[in-house]
């Protein structure tokens, strides 16, 4: 089985490297040609340049030699760049599994209520509306071609090098408090487990919430990480006065508790890190790096 990945970011690269033995060949893309060459040297498999202004001519041949296709690239300014350029190549290929990495942001604000995959998507931000439109475009391609397309809606991703310990060590962590606010999270290794399970059990049109079992207030998670690593606990900061980027601030405008029912019942995935506590315990050495 050969794998092709559009957008070799944090989650997709972890999956490709963890499951390397599953695939006879892996090929992937990043947007910058220099970055493509650097990652190829590190990862040991071909990495092509692909983005709004780049398009490696070898990609078409790669897709003709692909069995599993993972799309982790974000939408472009005019929709999904992969579909815009390669829908016909994908239709004509032997690809037998397609996974699209999306976000739980497509559910919008649910007022802190519990939701699952049966909850209607109601995105509020422009980027989440774009994500939902692309989800639907990929699902439509699957229905048209009878190629199994699965959508994986990810919650807040963390893992090695990308977790509260890093910000604590750098002195950049904040314990931002907004009354009633919670977030779900997911360890990058559990994302890889979800994708691997889906490869074993493709289901056309499936949508999975890839998220942990315990949504929690962000300030509680930061405090837990600090105490676990023996680092100073940052003082609390009121959300209204917190120094946040516009994108970070927008995340606090949506509040929901997300269940992962189909991940467990359909794919049989048992999370290795069902809450932030297990996940952070496995990562605490990042605090000493």
What does this 3D model show about the protein?
The protein has about 290 residues and is α/β, with parallel strands linked by helices. It has two domains: about 180 residues, Rossmann fold (3-Layer(aba) Sandwich), CATH 3.40.50.720; about 90 residues, UDP-galactose 4-epimerase, domain 1 (Alpha-Beta Complex), CATH 3.90.25. It has eleven helices and 14 strands. The strands form four sheets. An eight-stranded mixed beta sheet has the order 4-3-2-1-5-6-8-12, with helices on both faces. A two-stranded parallel ribbon has the order 7-14. β2, α2 and β3 form a beta-alpha-beta unit. α8 packs parallel to α11. The longest helix has 20 residues. The mean pLDDT is about 95.
**The CATH topology of the largest domain is what?**
Rossmann fold
Q: What is the architecture of the largest domain at the second tier of CATH?
A: 3-Layer(aba) Sandwich
| Helix content bin | 25-40%
Percent range for β-strand residues: 15-25%
Low-pLDDT regions: none
- H/E topology pattern: EHEHEEHEHEEHEEHEEHEHEHEHH
- Name the CATH superfamily classification of the largest domain: NAD(P)-binding Rossmann-like Domain
Q: Counting H and I runs of at least 4 residues, what is the number of helices?
A: 11
User: How many runs of DSSP E, i.e. beta strands?
Assistant: 14
Number of domains: 2
Give the rounded overall mean pLDDT: 95
Based on secondary structure, the structural category is: alpha/beta
The geometry reads as: globular
Radius of gyration: 19 Å
Q: What's the arrangement of strands in the largest beta sheet?
A: 4-3-2-1-5-6-8-12
Name of the level-1 CATH class of the largest domain: Alpha Beta
């Amino acid at each position: 089985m050969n794998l092709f990945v559009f957008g070799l970011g944090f989650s997709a690269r972890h999956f490709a490297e963890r499951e390397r033995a599953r695939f006879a060949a892996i090929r992937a893309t990043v947007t910058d040609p220099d970055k493509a060459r650097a990652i190829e040297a590190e990862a040991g498999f071909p990495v092509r340049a692909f983005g709004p202004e780049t398009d490696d001519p070898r990609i078409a041949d790669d897709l003709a030699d692909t069995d599993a296709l993972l799309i982790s690239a974000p939408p472009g300014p005019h929709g999904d760049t992969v579909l815009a350029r390669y829908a016909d190549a994908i239709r004509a290929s032997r690809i037998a599994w397609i996974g699209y990495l999306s976000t739980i942001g497509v559910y919008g604000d649910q007022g802190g209520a519990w939701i699952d995959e049966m909850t209607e998507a109601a995105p509020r931000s422009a980027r989440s509306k774009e994500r939902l439109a692309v989800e639907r475009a990929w699902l439509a391609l699957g229905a048209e071609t009878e190629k199994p397309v699965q959508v994986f809606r990810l919650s807040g991703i963390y893992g090695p090098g990308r977790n509260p310990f890093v910000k604590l060590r750098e002195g950049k962590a904040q314990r931002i408090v907004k009354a009633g606010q919670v977030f779900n999270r997911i360890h990058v290794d559990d994302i890889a487990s979800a994708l691997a399970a889906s490869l074993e059990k493709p289901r056309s049109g499936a949508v999975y919430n890839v998220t942990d079992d315990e949504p929690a207030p962000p300030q509680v998670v930061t405090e837990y990480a600090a105490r676990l690593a023996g680092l100073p606990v940052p003082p609390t900061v009121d959300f209204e006065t917190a120094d946040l980027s516009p994108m970070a601030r927008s995340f606090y405008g949506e509040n929901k508790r997300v269940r992962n029912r189909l991940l467990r019942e359909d794919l049989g995935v048992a999370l290795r890190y069902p809450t932030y506590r297990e996940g952070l315990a496995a990562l605490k050495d990042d605090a000493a790096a």
